[in-house]
Amino acid sequence: MTTEKQWPVRFTGKPAGVMRWLRDHGVERVRLEWADYNGIARGKAFTLAQFERGLDQGFAFCATVLAFDIEANVVPGTDFAESIGYGDFTVLPDFTSLRLLKHERAAAQIMGELVWSDHRPVEGDPRHVLRKVAAAAKVLGYDAMAASEFEFYLLDAEHKLVDSGRQAYSMQKRAQWLPEELVLLDAVSAHAEIEAGHYEYGPGQYEINIRYRDICGAADDSHLFRATMKEAALAINRRVTFMAKPFDKKTGNSCHVHMSLWRGDHNAFADQAAPMKISETCRHFVGGVLAHMKELTAIYFPNANSYRRLVPGNFAPISLAWGVDNRTAALRVLNETVSGTRVELRVCGGDAHVHLVFAAYLAAGLDGIKNRIEPGPMASGDLDFDGKVERLPDDWGRALNALDASNWARAALGEAFVRNYLVVKRYEYDNWRRTVTDQERNTYIEWL
């Protein structure tokens, strides 16, 4: 097995050397994966011999998996199911994403690039959408850097709370669940440098900070972090949920996304001589993100439960505003150092699709830079209870309609992606709004 002491252990060589690297590290299986429109990991685990046989031409997979809803029902009307006779696309291993696993013995994991049989990219693929936007940043001369912070609940095997009370940042509470924490953090250290973790605001809730890196790598790391966290919990008879609002009257789970743009070694968001030490580039980036937030709401809040988190007083920003080090603003600008100057998108829940959120967030910011969009006055104070500040959209149906009506989003993220994403999400929305819940039945059945 590997002798490296520092995790993650990623492949950094050329494709011709990949098989030797795998054998040198004792790998017996390679997991080839991608993410569907709900951020669920899909793929197969190949023997090393079979993985080697498919390196040149890629691996055929049923394209229908990109038409799955959250419960893996096949959604009609996409480009990936009945319209192509439930045929295949090809998955090409992306060697820049290859890494060793810790929670699965003798296994490596690699993300795939989805292409059609003629090697045209599958433009609806979430990873393709992000790579397209990252390439647009490079055209403007920027390298986008990003990092995520995830909150999650530790649960028992029946998805019930393992703890009670509220003790944010308590080291004693952390010690109470230390055996579980160490298992989970050991597993996810295969994907990213974990900078910090703490016991959060809800009972059995944690937050983990992942170190920043290039935006495409950071999205893969974040996706695999979340998927691996859930897998590792199964092995110790626990469960983990990143659901945005899993419990009534308890704080929800967030996914905070930090982003900055760089020109070589220069952080383009920092300007020590400017007001608040943030550059004109940073200010316009913020302006673009705010300007496009309504039409991107359906990406930032991808399911019915996402909107239940948007209530005042629970550290889930509901105001369409920005501020410097203000946790109640949708965008929190941090300017403590030149290299650390960045913009934090605070609206998303833990259920967010990281590739799509990173892409939408970056695309909106780039549009702000190109069109010199001003963000308006900086907000201050507790914005949750400021009735003068515009609120974020809080209705799933209207959010889907806003995305559908956005010609800008279709141009920035790709028409094929927006169209297929809307088909899947409208199917989920229609199922949700037609479902009678137990709460509704218990409230109304006797009296109506």
Return the structural class.
alpha+beta
Shape: globular
Taken together, the total number of domains comes to: 2
Total number of strands: 16
Mean pLDDT: 95
Question: How far apart lie the N and C ends?
Answer: 66 Å
Poorly predicted residue ranges: none
What's the story with the biggest beta sheet? 10 strands, mixed
Determine and state the CATH class of the largest domain.
Alpha Beta
Radius of gyration (Å): 22 Å
Instruction: Please work out how many helical segments DSSP would assign.
Output: 13
Strand content: 15-25%
The CATH architecture designation of the largest domain is: 2-Layer Sandwich
Helix proportion range: 25-40%
- Along the chain, the helix and strand elements come as HEEHEEEEHEHHEEEHEEEHHEEEHHHHH
CATH topology assignment of the largest domain: Creatine Kinase, Chain A, domain 2
- CATH homologous superfamily of the largest domain? Glutamine synthetase/guanido kinase, catalytic domain
Give a description of the structure.
The chain is α+β, with helices and mostly antiparallel strands. It has two domains: 15-122, Roll (Ubiquitin-like (UB roll)); 131-413, Glutamine synthetase/guanido kinase, catalytic domain (Creatine Kinase, Chain A, domain 2, 2-Layer Sandwich), CATH 3.30.590. Helix content is 31%, strand content 21%. The chain is built from 13 helices and 16 strands. Strands 7, 8, 9, 10, 11, 12, 13, 14, 15 and 16 form a ten-stranded mixed sheet that branches. Strands 1, 2, 3, 4, 5 and 6 form a six-stranded mixed sheet that branches. The radius of gyration is 22 Å and the shape is globular. It starts with 17 loop residues before the first helix and ends with a helix.
